[in-house]
Amino acid sequence: MNSHFIHPDDLLDEDRGAALGWEKLKGNLSDYMDWLDDSAPSLRQLTGSELSGAIQRYGAVTFTKTVTDQEIRLELDNFYDEVYFMVRINEGTPGDVSGGKLTHLTGNLYLLKAKEPTVTIEKTE
User: Fold this and answer.
1) Mean pLDDT by 10 residues, the chain (125 residues)
2) pLDDT at site 15
3) Are 2 and 36 in contact (CB under 8 A)?
4) How would DSSP label each residue in 42-57?
5) What is the pLDDT at residue 9?
């Protein structure tokens, strides 16, 4: 999650940047957003209300995980419509995913977007 904005008072208070001027403050924010997009391309762009809903979905969901040599299966309780998880897959290589979408982030770390109450990740060797 990332949250940032220019508060209207920043343009009036010299301690918070008013001496820099609007164009400089706007440019700083634009440069920061460009850097963030380049650094974390998988970061979702949400409004405050959408973020609140995502937190509620994540906070409510519970899961049961079953791991075999062939697959990882997540059974989600209190599932609403979608929820995101960070997942480490230490053994095997993920293959096809049903009930969700898996995005590789780095090493053995993935972002899982669950779209259904049952997610199955096939494992390949």
Assistant:
1) 78 88 91 92 85 92 95 96 94 95 94 97 91
2) 86
3) yes
4) T-----HHHHHHHHHH
5) 84
Enumerate residues 6+ apart whose C-beta is below 8 A from 89: 72, 108, 110, 121, 123
For residue 21 the two structure tokens come to 């001027």
Helices vs. strands in the chain: H and E counts, helices first: 2, 7
Six-digit token string for 101:
């979408």
- How is residue 64 written in tokens? 């049961």
Q: Are 99 and 119 in contact (CB under 8 A)?
A: yes
pTM above 0.90, yes or no: no
Angle, vertex CA 7, rays to CA 4 and CA 11, nearest 5: 130
Please give the Cα distance from 57 to 124 (Å, whole number). 30
How long, in residues, is the chain?
125
As a 3-state breakdown, the chain gives helix, strand, coil percent values, each rounded to 5, of 35, 35, 30
Per-residue pLDDT at 53: 92
Locate 49 and state its tokens: 């209300």
Rounded Cα gap, residues 48 and 39, in angstroms? 21
